[in-house]
Specification:
Elements: H1 2-14, H2 22-51, H3 58-63, H4 68-81, H5 85-93, H6 106-109, H7 113-125, H8 133-159, H9 163-174, H10 177-180, H11 191-214
Helix pairs in contact: 2-8, 4-5, 4-7, 8-9, 8-11
Length: about 220
C-alpha cells in the first residue's frame, strides 16, 4: 500500500499536479516545432501561388507592393540604402515626406521598429544572405507567421492540458487560415509582427493563473 502511494505521489509530482507532465511538455514542444515548420512551408507555397513571386524579377516584386505594403517597405529600404545609420535615423525621426509639410517622428508615429531592426540587420549582414532586401523581409515575416502557429499550438495544448487539444485547435484554425493571418495578401501589416507574441502572452497568462490556483490558500 505504501509503495503504491509513493508511486502515485511521484506520478503527481511528475505532472506538476495539474495533469500536464514532462512527457506532455516534450510532446508539445516537438509538435510546436513541427507545426511551425509546416506553417512556414505552406505559407511560402501559398504566397507564391497567390503572387507568382518566384516568377517575378526583383523589380516586379517591388512594383507589386501597394498601399501600406509599399509605405512600410520604403522605410525599411531607406535604412538599408542611407549613406549611414546616423543619416537614416535623422531621416526617420524628422520625416518630412509622409505627412508633408508636417515633420514627424516616423518611428513612433507609424510603429516601424520592425523595419528599422530588419534594415539594420540587412545593412550589415545582407552580403552574407541569399536574395535581395525584399526576399529577406519576406522570409523574416514567414518565420514570424510560423512562430505564430507554433505558439498558438503550444498555448492551446497547455491551457487544454493535452497536446491533443493543441492539435484540434490548430486544425480548427487551419479551416479559417485566411482570417488567422493575412500575410499572403498584406505582407507588411503590423499584425504580422505582433500576433505571434499575442499567443505567447496568452499561454503565459494562462500559466501564471493556473500556478496561482494551485497554490494553497
Amino acid at each position: 500500500g505504501g509503495g503504491g502511494g509513493g508511486g502515485g505521489g511521484e506520478a503527481a509530482a511528475d505532472d506538476g499536479g495539474d495533469g500536464f507532465g514532462k512527457v506532455s511538455i516534450i510532446i508539445t514542444a516537438v509538435l510546436s516545432l513541427v507545426v511551425a515548420y509546416a506553417a512556414f512551408r505552406v505559407l511560402r507555397i501559398l504566397h507564391d501561388l497567390d503572387t507568382g513571386y518566384s516568377l517575378q524579377t526583383p523589380a516586379e516584386r517591388r512594383m507589386a507592393l501597394y498601399s501600406e505594403q509599399s509605405f512600410y517597405y520604403s522605410f525599411y529600404e531607406n535604412v538599408i540604402n542611407a549613406p549611414s545609420l546616423t543619416s537614416a535615423a535623422i531621416d526617420l525621426i524628422h520625416d518630412q515626406r509622409s505627412q508633408y509639410p508636417e515633420i514627424l517622428n516616423a518611428i513612433e508615429r507609424f510603429n516601424i521598429y520592425p523595419e528599422v531592426v530588419l534594415g539594420i540587420f540587412y545593412r550589415y549582414f545582407g552580403a552574407l544572405l541569399p536574395g535581395d532586401p525584399l526576399d529577406f523581409m519576406l522570409i523574416s515575416l514567414m518565420l514570424m507567421a510560423a512562430f505564430q502557429w507554433g505558439t498558438f499550438f503550444a498555448a492551446a495544448a497547455y491551457l487544454g492540458r493535452s497536446p491533443v487539444v493543441g492539435v484540434c485547435a490548430t486544425l480548427f484554425c487551419l479551416c479559417y487560415a485566411n482570417w488567422v493571418t493575412r500575410i499572403n495578401e498584406h505582407l507588411t501589416l503590423r499584425e504580422n509582427y505582433s500576433t505571434p507574441f499575442l499567443w505567447a502572452q496568452v499561454g503565459l497568462v494562462g500559466y501564471f493563473i493556473q500556478q496561482q490556483q494551485q497554490q494553497p490558500p
